[in-house]
Design brief:
With 111 residues, this protein is of the alpha+beta class. It is built from 4 helices and 4 strands; from the N terminus they run ββββαααα. The radius of gyration is 20 Å and the shape is elongated.
Length: 111
């Protein structure tokens, strides 16, 4: 099976991971025989989905339509936000310890 990548940041999304999938296909209307394109699945990791949803509206009608759907999902309940938050916490945990020390030193000096 091909690994799924986030369209925006290209990070790999494991099956069962929280993510947002946008399904897309096109078909002709009023034309016989009806033509149907192959279906496409576009995935976003939680961070990108949340960041897109909270960001400014994109350019282009198709992007606007997808943006509206992603906003609907992200605003419906907090689990995507939580997943994005958790992975952000993971990144912060990987930062060198010095970063945190510098900050507390600065706070101490400021106080
Ligand atoms: Zn992403």
């Amino acid at each position: 099976m091909q690994p799924i990548c986030c369209l925006r940041c290209r990070c790999e999304i494991q099956s069962g991971d929280k993510s947002v999938a946008v399904y897309m296909f096109a078909q002709t209307v009023g034309v016989r025989p009806r033509q149907k394109s192959s279906a496409n699945r576009i995935c976003f990791c939680p961070q990108c989905a949340v960041s897109l949803a909270m960001g400014l509206p994109p350019d282009g009608a198709l992007n606007m339509a997808a943006w509206g759907m992603i906003r609907e999902l992200v605003s419906a309940e907090p689990s995507l936000n939580e997943a994005a938050w958790e992975s952000l916490r993971g990144v912060v945990g990987l930062l060198p310890a010095g970063v945190e020390d510098d900050r507390s030193n600065r706070l101490r000096r400021a106080g």
